[in-house]
Design brief:
The complex is a heterodimer of chains A (378) and B (407). Chain A has 378 residues and is mainly beta. In chain A, 6% of the residues lie in helices and 61% in strands. Chain B is mostly beta strands. In chain B, 40% of the residues are buried. Classes of the chains: A mainly beta (378), B mainly beta (407).
C-alpha cells in the first residue's frame, strides 16, 4: 500500500517539474537538461552512464537492488552578464524524479523517470524610448517564459550472465512553454500591453544501452538514443515540427582502489538536426554538442561506501542554441558533494555543490548550484 | 568533529532547499540576441467618424428638469432667471376635527445654492413674487423678467463671500411677511422668481426638485384654538416646490451642421466609427482618444466645472439607444472654459469593448454633466460638409499580436 502511494505521488509530481535556467536557454528549445541525479552531479556527471539514479542510460538501472524512488531539487544562484547589463538571479528547480526497482526472480530492473529535457525559464527586461503622438515616451518591455520540454522515460535493464547488461527506454517528450510579452509605458495614459501565448511540444524517442562489468572494479557503458522530432503547437494549433537530436554516450568506470572510484563519459548530441527547423521559424539555429565529464568518489570507509563519500568532478560541454552571435555557447563546471544513507539504508540524502561558467561572446553567466537528492527505498 | 561537519553540511543543504526557494528570474535583455520574436511594435493611427454617422439629438432633460436651476446677471454664457412655484398652503388647520383659522407670525423662504462663481464677490439673491398662476414649464424669459421689478421684491439675501454652496434663507416677520401673504380663498399658492446681482457679471445654480434640493416655503402660524398646549397653538406649515424651472433669454442654438451637446432641453451627440479590421480583430489597443473640435470657445460659469462625458452605446436604436451604466465604460473630462482647443477624451475601454463584443455598436454617446443644469453648452464639428469645424476622429495607439517565436 505504501509503495502504491509512493508511486502515485511520484507520478503526480511531474506537474511541478522544472529545469535549470540560463540566458543560453532563451533561444531555440532552451537549455538541455542533463538527466542526472544529485550524486552524479556531485562528480561532474562522470558517473551518469552507470549511476542507477540517473536517466542517461537504461543499463544503469541494473545497479538497483531494491525499489528506489529519487527526487532531485536544485537551488541556483546565478550572475548574468550581457551587453545590456548584469544581474544576480536565483531560482529553484526540480529537474528529475525517478522510481525503479528489480523484478522478482528475473535479472530485470524496470523504471520510470521524469526529467527535464529542455528548460526555458527566464524573464528578460529591457527599456527604450519611442516616439508616440509627437512625444518621446519611455517604455519598458519584459518577455518571460516558463516551462520547457520534459522527458517521461519508461526504461528496463536486463542483466546477462557474464557481466553484460542490455537496456532500452521509450521516451515520451512533452511539455509546454508559457510566453508572456509585456510593454509598459511610463506615460500612464497608455495602458500596459500584455500578450501571451502557450507553446506545447509532443514527441517520442527511444534508446538502447549496453554495459559490460568487468568484475566490480571496471565497467564500460554506451548508449544510443533517438528522439525523433517534436510537434510544436502554439495555442492549440500545430505550427512547426522540429527534429530532435540523436544522442551517443560512452562511459567508463574504474575503481583502482577500494577507497577510490573514478569515472568519465562523453555524450554527443546531434542538435544540428533541428537547425533548419529553427531557422525556418525565425530562430537562430543550433549545432551539435559534446559533453565531457570526469570525476570520482573518495570512500573513507570501504565497508560502508555510502557513509559520507566525497564526490568530485568537472565537466565541459557545448550548448546547442546560438544567441545570434554566431558563437556556440560553452559550459564548464566543477562540482563537489557527499551523501548519507539513513534508516538501514532505506533513505538517502545527497548533496552536490556545483559552480558553472557559461559564455558565448559578450554573454556570460556563472551559477552556483546546490543540488539536493532525496532517495527512498520503501 | 567529522560527524559535526557532516551534519552541518546536510543542515545547510536542507536550509538552502527550504529557505532559498524565492525566485528572481529577471535579467537584462539585449535585442535581437535575447529577444525571441523581436520587440513589440507600437502603431498609431487616426480613424475618422463614419460620414453621416454622427448626430445630435435634443430633449433628454427638459429645462428645469435637471439637478439645478440657473440664474445669472450679465453672464456671457447666458442670461437666466429661476422660477419656483410651491405646493398649495391650506387656509386653515384641523384641530380636534375642526378646521380652524390661523394668523401668520413669520415666513421663511429657503434655497439651496448648488454653485456660484467663487471669484465674484458681493453676491445677492433677490426674491420676487410672481403670479400664482405662473406655469414654470411654459414660462419664457420675456414673460418672467418684466415681472421681476422692485414692487414685487420679497427680500434680498446677501450671500457671504465665504459661502460657496449650501442653504441660504430669509425670515420675514410682521409686516415683511405680508409680501408673501396669500389671501384666503385664492388657492394658497406662492410663486417666486430669482434674480442675482454681484460686483461683476456672474451666475449661480440653485437647487431643484429633480436634485432633491428644491426651495422651501415655511409659514409659522398661531392657530385660533382656546385652552390648549403651545405646540398646538403655534405650528409651522412647510411647503416644498411643486414646479420649478428657469428661463433663458437666448436659448442655445448650435451652428448648422454641428453637434450640439448640453443646453436646455439637453442635447446629446452620437458618433459612430468603423474600426479597421486590422485593429478590430487582432490589435491590442493601449490608448484610444476621441478628438473633437469645438466651433467656439467653451463658455460657462467660471469656477463651476462642467464635465464632458463619453459613454458606450449598448445598442444602436437611434436617439433612444441604451447607454452603459458600467463605470469602466464611462469617461469624464472636465471642460476648460474659454478654450477652443481640440477636446480629447480617453475612450480606450470603450474601444476595447468594441473589439471584444461584436454585438456592441462602434458608437459613443456624449453628454454634458450636469445635464440640463449647467451654464455650459457647446457644439463640435461633425462629418456634415457644412460644419465649420472638422469631424470627430479617433486617435488609436495599438500593438499587433506579438510574433512569438515557434518555439
Amino acid at each position: 500500500m505504501r509503495r502504491a502511494l509512493l508511486i502515485l505521488v511520484l507520478l503526480l509530481a511531474p506537474g511541478v517539474l522544472a529545469g535549470q535556467s540560463s540566458q543560453f536557454g532563451v533561444r531555440g528549445l532552451g537549455i538541455p537538461g542533463r538527466w542526472l541525479s544529485a550524486r552524479a552531479i556531485a562528480s561532474g556527471g562522470a558517473f551518469g552512464l552507470v549511476d542507477p539514479e540517473s536517466s542517461v542510460s537504461p543499463t544503469s538501472l541494473s545497479g538497483l537492488a531494491m525499489l528506489t524512488a529519487t527526487f532531485t531539487g536544485v537551488q541556483s544562484f546565478r550572475h548574468v552578464e550581457n551587453p545590456a547589463g548584469a544581474e544576480s538571479l536565483r531560482e529553484s528547480a526540480f529537474p528529475q524524479l525517478a522510481i525503479a526497482g528489480p523484478i522478482k526472480k528475473l535479472p530485470l530492473v524496470l523504471g520510470v523517470s521524469f526529467s527535464n529535457y529542455t528548460s526555458r525559464d527566464f524573464t528578460l527586461a529591457s527599456a527604450d524610448t519611442i516616439l508616440l503622438r509627437g512625444a518621446l515616451v519611455p517604455v519598458s518591455d519584459t518577455f518571460s517564459s516558463r516551462g520547457g520540454m520534459s522527458d517521461l522515460r519508461f526504461a528496463g535493464a536486463y542483466t546477462i550472465p557474464g557481466g553484460w547488461v542490455v537496456g532500452g527506454s521509450v521516451h515520451v517528450l512533452t511539455g509546454s512553454n508559457r510566453l508572456v510579452s509585456v510593454r509598459a509605458f511610463e506615460d500612464i495614459s497608455f495602458l500596459t500591453a500584455k500578450q501571451s501565448s502557450e507553446v506545447s511540444f509532443a514527441g517520442v524517442g527511444f534508446d538502447l544501452g549496453l554495459m559490460r562489468n568487468f568484475g566490480t572494479s571496471f565497467s564500460l557503458a554506451a548508449v544510443a538514443r533517438s528522439d525523433g522530432h517534436a510537434i510544436v503547437d502554439r495555442d492549440s494549433a500545430t505550427v512547426a515540427r522540429v527534429d530532435l537530436p540523436y544522442t551517443f554516450g560512452f562511459g567508463v568506470r574504474w575503481r583502482p582502489a577500494p577507497a577510490l572510484d573514478l569515472a568519465s563519459n562523453v555524450v554527443v548530441r546531434t542538435w544540428s538536426a533541428s537547425n533548419s527547423d529553427l531557422l525556418a521559424q525565425g530562430g537562430t539555429g543550433a549545432d551539435n554538442t559534446v559533453q565531457v565529464a570526469l570525476g570520482g568518489v573518495l570512500i573513507p570507509d570501504a565497508r560502508r561506501p555510502n557513509r559520507r563519500p566525497i564526490r568530485f568532478g568537472v565537466h565541459y560541454g557545448t550548448l546547442p542554441f546560438f544567441l545570434g552571435t554566431g558563437e556556440q555557447p560553452t559550459e564548464f563546471g566543477v562540482s563537489l558533494g557527499t551523501g548519507a544513507r539513513f534508516a538501514q539504508q532505506r533513505a538517502g540524502l545527497d548533496l552536490a555543490l556545483e559552480q558553472v561558467w557559461r559564455s558565448a561572446g559578450g554573454y556570460k553567466e556563472r551559477a552556483f548550484q546546490v543540488t539536493v537528492g532525496v532517495s527512498v527505498r520503501p | 568533529m567529522k560527524g559535526w561537519l557532516g551534519r552541518a553540511a546536510f543542515v545547510a543543504a536542507i536550509a538552502a532547499g527550504v529557505f532559498a526557494c524565492q525566485e528572481r528570474l529577471t535579467s537584462p535583455g539585449q535585442c535581437p540576441e535575447l529577444c525571441p520574436g523581436g520587440t513589440p511594435v507600437v502603431f498609431d493611427t487616426v480613424v475618422s467618424a463614419v460620414t453621416g454617422g454622427d448626430e445630435s439629438v435634443s430633449g433628454y432633460v427638459a429645462r428645469g428638469g435637471g439637478v439645478a436651476l440657473l440664474t445669472s446677471s450679465g453672464l456671457p454664457a447666458s442670461e437666466d432667471r429661476t422660477v419656483y412655484r410651491f405646493v398649495s398652503r391650506l387656509d386653515s388647520i384641523t384641530v380636534r376635527d375642526t378646521a380652524r383659522a390661523y394668523t401668520v407670525d413669520s415666513v421663511q423662504l429657503a434655497l439651496t445654492m448648488v454653485a456660484r462663481d467663487t471669484l465674484v464677490n458681493g453676491l445677492k439673491v433677490v426674491l420676487y413674487r410672481l403670479p400664482a398662476d405662473l406655469d414654470p414649464d411654459t414660462a419664457t424669459f420675456a414673460s418672467v423678467d418684466p415681472q421681476l421689478v422692485d414692487a414685487s421684491v420679497i427680500d434680498t439675501i446677501a450671500v457671504p463671500d465665504s459661502v460657496n454652496a449650501g442653504q441660504i434663507s430669509t425670515m420675514l416677520r410682521g409686516p415683511e411677511a405680508d409680501r408673501v401673504a396669500i389671501p384666503v380663498g385664492t388657492g394658497g399658492v406662492l410663486a417666486m422668481g430669482l434674480r442675482i446681482a454681484a460686483d461683476a457679471p456672474t451666475g449661480a445654480r440653485f437647487g431643484s426638485i429633480a436634485g432633491g434640493t428644491g426651495a422651501t416655503f415655511t409659514t409659522y402660524v398661531t392657530v385660533d384654538v382656546p385652552d390648549t398646549a403651545t405646540s398646538v397653538v403655534h405650528q409651522s406649515l412647510s411647503r416644498g416646490a411643486q414646479d420649478n424651472s428657469f428661463v433663458t433669454q437666448t436659448p442655445f442654438v448650435a451652428p448648422p451642421g454641428t453637434l450640439a451637446i448640453g443646453g436646455e432641453p439637453s442635447s446629446r451627440a452620437f458618433i459612430r466609427f468603423a474600426l479597421p479590421l486590422r485593429i478590430r480583430d487582432s490589435a491590442n489597443v493601449v490608448r484610444a482618444t476621441l478628438e473633437m473640435l469645438p466651433t467656439a470657445p467653451v463658455s460657462g460659469l467660471p469656477t463651476d466645472p462642467t464635465v464632458l462625458r463619453a459613454l458606450a452605446v449598448l445598442s444602436d436604436i437611434g436617439p433612444k439607444s441604451p447607454l452603459t451604466t458600467d463605470p469602466r465604460l464611462v469617461t469624464d473630462d472636465t471642460l476648460s472654459l474659454g478654450s477652443a482647443d481640440t477636446l480629447r477624451l480617453d475612450i480606450t475601454r470603450i474601444v476595447q469593448l468594441w473589439q471584444q463584443s461584436g454585438e456592441r455598436p462602434e458608437e459613443v454617446a456624449l453628454i454634458l454633466r450636469p445635464e440640463g443644469a449647467s451654464f455650459t453648452r457647446m457644439a463640435v464639428g461633425s462629418t456634415n460638409p457644412v460644419s465649420p469645424a472638422g469631424a470627430p476622429r479617433l486617435h488609436i495607439t495599438y500593438l499587433l499580436s506579438f510574433p512569438f517565436e515557434n518555439p
